[in-house]
Amino acid sequence: MNSIPDILESLKRSHNILSEFVRSIPDDRLVRKRGDGFWSLAEHVNHLAEVQPMLGERIRRFLEESHPEFVPFFPDEDESALQIVQIDVVAALAAFDRGRREQLKLLQAATPADWEKTATHPEYEQYSLIILARHILMHDHWHMYRMEELWLTRDEYLTILTG
User: Fold this and answer.
1) Confidence bin at 4 (pLDDT 50/70/90)
2) Using one digit for the tens of pLDDT, what is the confidence trace for 78-128?
3) Number of Cβ within a 10 Å radius of residue 33
4) CB atoms within 10 A of CB 44
5) What is the 3-state secondary structure (H, E, C) of the chain?
6) Which of 83, 76, 97, 122 is nearest to 22 (CA)?
7) Could you tell me which residues come within 8 angstroms of residue 113 by beta carbon, excluding any fewer than 6 positions away?
8) Rounded to whole angstroms, what are the CA distances from 131 to 5, 19, 70, 104, 119?
9) What are the structural domains of the chain?
């Protein structure tokens, strides 16, 4: 529980890190696909924006329910995600920021008892509000790392994700 202030501060900083990073990338590289099965950098930004409402709702449920039960979220199964043609990266960054601000308001209102609440989630052996908050942070940074890898890594060193 000692890490809660650090997690909250890091969640607060994610938008600035992501926005400055994205602004440093030439527009043509934002939409470039490195091959089949690879997302463009713009798709990663869009994904980060699109999951914010779902994550905010999970936080809200932790605050309102004694032991929430969650279902997995698989964005690849959402047909609308597969039909993205043009992504407005500026709008996606703004949506990410709005979602994150709402999450932070909720998390900052959480009591010590809220932070200790557990939930059921079929993907995870354990799930709690602190695990969710840490998961959100790690999810942000995983996508930012992947974006940097897709932008800068030479083909022969690029990680190929399977499954």
Assistant:
1) very high
2) 544 444 458 999 999 999 999 999 999 999 999 999 999 999 999 999 999
3) 13
4) 21
5) CCCHHHHHHHHHHHHHHHHHHHHCCCHHHHCCCCCCCCCCHHHHHHHHHHHHHHHHHHHHHHHHCCCCECCCCCHHHCHHHHCCCCCCHHHHHHHHHHHHHHHHHHHHHCCHHHHHCECECCCCCCCEHHHHHHHHHHHHHHHHHHHHHHHHCCHHHCCCCCC
6) 97
7) none
8) 14, 25, 14, 15, 10
9) 4-157 (1.20.120.450)
Query: Which residue is listed with tokens 């010590």?
Result: 112
* Contact partners, residue 86, CB within 8 Å, separation at least 6: none
Residue 85: predicted pLDDT: 58
**Which of 16-25, 56-65, 67-76 has the weakest average pLDDT?**
67-76
Residue 148 CA to residue 146 CA, distance in Å, equals 5
- Give pLDDT, residue 79: 43
Task: With CA atoms as reference, report the closest residue to 54 among 5, 85, 99, 8.
Answer: 99
